[in-house]
C-alpha cells in the first residue's frame, strides 16, 4: 500500500526534525523540501482515495436502487401469485358446492343450466391453473436478482469502509506533515536569524573611506611625530588625498562623537555593529552629527589638514572603543597589504 510507505517516510522525516535543533537554514530547507514532496504525495493520495470513495458510493446507491426495484417486483409477483391461488381456491370451493347441490335438483331445465355453470367453472379453474406455473420461475429469477444486488451492495459497502479508513489515515498524515512543515518553517526562521547575527558579528569588512585609490603615506604603528605631540605610536593610517575631497563612512553605523581637537583636528567617530569604531581625523568639514545613523559609502566629511597635521590627508583609525584606545591596524580591513 502506497500510504504505508508514505507513513514510513513521514516517520523518518519526523526523526530528522527532532534531531534538527540548531542546524543551518539550508539543511532545514532540505527537510522542508522533503516534507513538501511528501505532502504533495499525500494530497494526491487523498484526492485519489476521495475519487475512489465517491465511485464506490455511487455504485452502492446504484446497487441499492436495483435491489429495491427487484424487491418490489418480487413482492408484487408473490402477491399476484397468492391472489391467483386464492382465486383458484375460491372457484374450486364454489365448484365443489355446486357439484354437490346439483344432485338435489329435480327440474331438468335448472339441472341443465347448473350443469353448464359447473362446466364453465371447471374451465375457469383450469385456465387459471394453467397460468400458475408461469409465476414460479419469475419469482425465482427475481429472488436471484435481489440476492445478487444485495451481495454487490455489501461488497461495495465493505470497500467503502476500507477506503474511508485509508482516507482517514492519509488525512492524519496530511495534518501531521503540515504541522511538521510549520515547525520547520519556524526553525528555519530562527536559524536564519542566528545566521544573520553571526554574519554581522563575524564579518569585519570595511569599505574604503575614499573614492580614490588608497595611498598610505604613514602606516599603523610608525613614529608619526618625532616631536611627541601626537604620541610616539601611530594609531591609524594616513591616506593621501585632496583638500575637500569627500570622506565616506567605511561601514554602516552610528556617529558617536564629532568634535575638534588640538591634535586630531576635526574628527568623527562612528560605531559599527561588528565591535569596531572607525575614526576620521584632520577633516576640513564635518557633515554629520552625533547620533546620526550613517550608511557605508555615505559622505560624512571633507578631507583637510586641521589639528596636528603637516599637509592634507585623512587619518583613518579603527579601534574597539570610542575612547581613543585599543586601536588596530586598519590596513588589512581596507584590503591594503
Ligand atoms: Zn595619522
TrEMBL record:
Domain (M23ase beta-sheet core): residue spans on this chain: 233-321
Superkingdom as given in the UniProt entry: Bacteria
InterPro entries: Cell_wall_metabolism_enzyme (IPR050570), Dup_hybrid_motif (IPR011055), M23ase_b-sheet_dom (IPR016047)
Coiled-coil annotated residue ranges, if any: 32-101, 167-204
GO molecular function terms listed in the Swiss-Prot or TrEMBL record: metalloendopeptidase activity
Keywords attached to this entry: Coiled coil, Signal
Range of residues in the leader sequence: 1-25
PANTHER family: MUREIN HYDROLASE ACTIVATOR ENVC, PEPTIDASE-RELATED
Protein name per its UniProtKB record: M23ase beta-sheet core domain-containing protein
Organism: Enterococcus columbae DSM 7374 = ATCC 51263
Source taxonomy: Bacteria, Bacillati, Bacillota, Bacilli, Lactobacillales
